[in-house]
Specification:
The complex is a heterodimer of chains A (360) and B (495).
Chain A lengths: L1 H21 L3 H21 L3 H25 L12 H18 L11 H4 L1 H12 L5 H9 L1 H22 L20 H5 L1 H24 L7 H19 L1 H7 L2 H24 L15 H32 L26 H7 L1
Helix pairs in contact in A: 1-2, 2-3, 3-11, 3-14, 6-7, 7-8, 7-14, 8-13, 8-14, 10-11, 11-12, 11-14, 13-14
Chain B lengths: L4 H19 L2 H25 L4 E4 L10 E4 L1 H18 L8 H4 L3 H20 L3 H19 L6 H31 L4 H8 L2 H4 L2 H18 L7 H8 L2 H35 L2 H21 L4 H21 L3 H32 L10 H4 L1 H15 L5 H15 L3 H27 L17 H19 L2 H15 L4
Antiparallel strand pairs in B: 1-2
Chain lengths: 360, 495
Amino acid sequence: MELLITVTLFAFLIWMAVVIGRQRDLFSASMLTGIFSLICAGLFTVMDAVDVAFTEAAVGAGISTVLFLATLALTDERERRPEHTPLAAIGVVALTGAALVYGTLDMPAYGDPSAPVHTGVARHYMERSWDEIGLPNIVTGVLASYRGFDTFGELGVIFTAGIGVSLLLSAGTPELTPGAPPPPPKSRAPYVREMPILRTVSKALMPYILLFALYVQAHGDFGPGGGFQAGVIFTAALILYGLIWGPSAVEAFARRRLVERATAVGLLIYGGVGVTTLTLGHSFLDYSALSPEHPQHGQHWGIFVVELGVGITVSAVMLVIYYVFASRPKKDVSPMRQPLPLLGGACVGDVSTEDAEADS
Amino acid sequence: MKEQLPVLVVVVPLLTAPLLVLLRAPAAVRILSLLAAAASTAAAVTLALTVEAPISYHLGGWPPPIGIEYRVTQATAFVLALVTTIATFSLLLGARGTRSEVTNGRTHLFYAAFLLCLAGLLGMVVTGDAFNVFVFLEISSLSTYALVAMGRRRRAFTAALNYLILGTIGGTFVLIGIGLLFQMTGTLNALDIARHMTQAEVGGTRTVQVAFAFLVVGFGIKLAVFPLHQWLPNAYAESPSAVSSFLAGTATKVIYFQTMRALLVLFGASYVFGTLRFGLFLGVLSLLGMFAGSLAAIYQTSLKRLLAYSSIGQVGYLTLALSFGSEAGTYAGLLHMGAHAITKTALFVVAAAIVSGVGTDRIDALAGLGKRLPLCAFAFVLGGLGLIGVPGTAGFVSKWALLEAALADGHLGYAAALLLSSLLAVVYVWRVVEVMYFRQPPPDAPAARGLRGYDWGALGPALVLMVASILLGVWSSPITGYVRTAATQLFRGGL
């Protein structure tokens, strides 16, 4: 039965990859990458890697699809047809694929208990983490403590991504000039009026999604979850709200300047734990230093705080990226083509004053 | 405190970056970032001066291979000191040559990205863990793409996008390679992987061969080895002054160090150069890079592009040294990495000073610079001599070591090619010198303005670096002795 599921999912995955590759309509391609990620998440679940599946579903199927759409709203929905078939590129890709297949020939069988991945460090994590860290979810123990410095680095990657996107795209936005009067409140996107179901559902769902994010944040020690997934879910809720009510509605709740600072605060919280253990005379991120009598308690405290830092930075960076995209001035859209009605504010410029008045 | 130095080198810039975002005020941001780079330099230099036996620092308190290990040897300390020093000198250039919006309200983000890039490069050097290399590679790569795009002209965006696409492919290949190695060894600690690799049931597998291929191609892209070098000229030429001088001296150098460690430590010299016979392949690519880069440099019309193409040629020297698969080659490679890093950074800083004075880096606009800005022109000549490898410069010491390593292994062809490509360097340096000294300045050019006509914020660091490269060339024995022990250690698989 499991084999059947795996084969079906892989077949879907390959089919989806081919369809995306041949797709010229970038809007469809973006939606399909979301489905691609969802199938990946399914495969990870079958492999019992629920934490990874959770992240893949939240990031791949959720946030990155929204960011793709945001990019399309700024650029174009259709890919220009290349002038010639990229034979050389296809050749390189085929060669790379062939190399990967060649590499699988000597791999240990999937699930082989004597494979190196099961007898190496993983064995130590499985056997000893209960005594050394004392968390039921071993994955959290590995990510936040045994390899906590990697996670610190990954948080650095996310923070860097936020800085990079802000540097690249935020030129020319109203936020740039400090002290300038705030821009006039933007009217609601035109389609909100026409979609009472979306309006109601988005408002009704909001508290549950936010609460779920907090649950995922706190429950990472015991089940799948943690700061990364929680941060993404939290921001996904806000972006969902922004899609329906326009970015200014979200900005009223989470001010842009504040969110920009929050990206730094999360990383500083994580690093601050490291600096604390360092000043206590232990190694960087050695949480046992936090409670010398009960090293396990120290581990719990340390993991709790660094996960909080992860949650803050991840959610703030995602939100900053969304703000930056949503506040970009739009390119000239030909009257023939309707702009994507997905970015909320992306369409604000198109609302005639009549419509706005009728709406209010 | 002293035992915490290995981690402080990386963590100081990494945690200063978010502080800058909170701070925002441009003046404070400039000072704080410079302080962070200086502190990191002090830590790195202290490590380099005091390290004897390898230092193993257990992050999180978990001993390797259970946890992540920072490992400081003479080789890593040498690279750490090099990278931090160059970063500090580059930071002195500040936001010269950036887009106007950077200086207008985005200064803190620019400096934060710079420090993140520095932290990423340092993290890759000092770690003894294969996956940790990838994490910090990501930090340095992402920040580099954003920094390159901050160049003055719109072309900087295209340059950054090209670099982003190729660099991401490179990073992904590295990750696939590490993943395959983990699958075959069950560990991520570099020395532990190396231990497993000596077992026939691991080292002899096709999976390990494919892991080798992916790691080499991945690093090859980021290193700009000959056919994979297309991203480099535009990325270097279009980026702001501080970024181009920083990248030219560090980015490819750190990747070169990673490649050395991958070949000599992870896989082992006997596997790479014995079983796989990789030396000949790498040697041929190196030769092609040496000539293609230097020839292209001759035909450039802008100073920064000329320097960038010359870097492709210099990467050829570095990989050639590695391809010998000998201890002498490792020594020559490490030494040339250091010499070229200082020389090329100095030259890019000089280019920044020239751009400040002349307003452009087009070579034909530099006519009569020897009269208009004699110190700038003189500094360029000194750097050019180092690039060619004239006796008395650091470039000579390292090229001589390279020549010796080639002759020691009986590679007469390689030795001849080295000399021939040095002649090409003479040609492209002379082209600029000729314009600077033997052409009349345009009639409308402003006359020499004495010492106050210079952009000392750029020329000062340039002159210091030039003097350093001359001093290292004249009085080289302490540094060559140090590098020789480092190379011996590295070649014997000591990380």
